Amino acid sequence: MTHDDVAPHGAPSPAADPAALIGAGAAHLGIELGSTRIKAALVDDAGTVLATGSHAWENRLEDGSWTYSLEDVHAGLQSCYADLARRVREQHGAELAQVRSLGVSAMMHGYLALDAEGALLTPFRTWRNTYTGEAAGILSELLGRNIPLRWSIAHLLHAARGGEEHVSRIAALTTLAGYVHERLSGRRVLGVGDASGMFPIAADGRSWDAERLAKAQALPELEAIGRPLTEILPEILVAGEDAGTLTEDGARLLDPSGTLRPGAVLAAPEGDAGTGMVATSAIAPRTGNVSAGTSAFAMVVLEGELSAPREEVDLVTTPAGDPVAMIHTNNCTGDLDAWLRVLSEFSGLIGSAKEPGELYAPLFELALQGEADAGGLISYNYLSGEHQTGVESGRPMLVRAQDARFTLPNLLRAHLYGAFGALATGMRILLEEEKVRLDTLYAHGGIFSTKGVAQQILADALRTPVAVDDSAGEGGAWGMALLAAYTAERTAGSAASLDEHLRTRIFAHRSTQTTAPDPVGAEGYARWLDAYRAALPVQRLAGELIPDKETR
After folding, report:
1. What are phi and psi of 162, to 5 degrees?
2. Model confidence over 467-488: pLDDT tens digits?
3. Which fold is adopted by the domain 109-174+199-233?
4. For 28-175, where are the alpha helices, taking DSSP H only?
5. Which CATH number applies to 275-470+511-545?
6. DSSP helix/strand/coil, 328
7. In the chain, what are the domain boundaries?
8. pTM of the entire structure?
9. Burial 114-130 (b: 16+ CB within 10 A, else e)
10. How many whole angstroms separate alpha carbon 132 and alpha carbon 112?
11. In percent, how much of the chain has pLDDT > 90?
């Protein structure tokens, strides 16, 4: 069910001498702070990856909130950059002393409140926190727009309604990408795609929605802060606009050794949803993308408005400011990764030790031998709550009827099905009820690195062709590097739109593998999803009865 679409030629060829390009300070750097890894990608003008770096990290549940400390943010950035610089030396014999442009992206949403001196007022509250339901409901009704639990404005109202002491001292709200960008450049700005996860964006796609800002500001709890939201929220920029330059302090933050020189052009900081769209060139109407990692989201660029506000659908924007319907899920690959670690332990026990990474390809391929409905096995991958399915506190579960066919292929297929279960639930609303037209869905993330497996399952789940290009495993760091390169071109005088730049400069010379839905697989997934949804009360009850670590 797959074929390779080889795009037309004519794009710039990759750099003939990467070492000379790097030595001349002409490469572009993208950094993304994801849920489990901080990744860096260094690219040339054509988007060819010259080197990558990474740093593993994990969020922590502290005082009832999922968080990362700023110390971990700083240390992780330095570790990731050091890994990149080391690989540049090993692969190209060059020293990474300067880049032409640089951009930072990070997991979207959440709550990062700063005082007048720029100090953090309360630990960073990530997108995984789902205790803002009452505040989000008040805002959704007031603003006539779905305000998700994880949006910054919902977190702000939640804190204000709870009488949290720090609220009266808030001078600024930002996102994780915005925070890092300010440390690198001294400028408090935000790309419009990331900003659209803080508060609704106006119809012009370039500014905050003034009418809705006024309505929110009139809420007694927000009015009592003493500063208008227009002062608290960051300045919005669209892709390609000047977002500052790397300062001396910013260069030292990334590279304490002092090798990295300041002066790089900085792109507007973006969210991981926006970089996912760029990494798949899915920024035109009737295109969309899926980004799959610890969480997952689908972004579909809209041709028009939805029929009404939908609780399951977020309205955000592309990095260029065009309207997008977003289906976001808190859970995707985390539980699947945990099962692969267990199977890795088993391989060691029987004297054939394999690292988890070595097991993905053979076990994923085995999953395709499973029955179309996974033999009656249902996997809930809920390491945290899941708003798409109304689960307040998640508990990973594998359930089956007595007559289910419990085989290894079915087990693996059920876990892959479960990785996309919440996403498919939300996409049913968008595609079947709202009748949103979607020609092709582009996918990226490590789960798609095993050729044709997760891609086929997602195509079956959504009954939509799914395309993966050869950058599928690069993810958002690569997308952010492309935004940085585009910003360098725009600030140097280019008049190309982001869509034109991506089509003609980046993706014209890349090949794409497109997988069509398999009728048998699509019907099997539909039956599986019906059973998955029907049994959700069991998952909700598990959250009530099985204590988490903090309450044991």
Report:
1. -85, 0
2. 987 654 557 899 999 999 999 9
3. Nucleotidyltransferase; domain 5 (3.30.420)
4. 70-92, 133-143, 152-161
5. 3.30.420.40
6. strand
7. 109-174+199-233, 275-470+511-545
8. 0.82
9. beeeeeebbbbbbbbbb
10. 15
11. 80
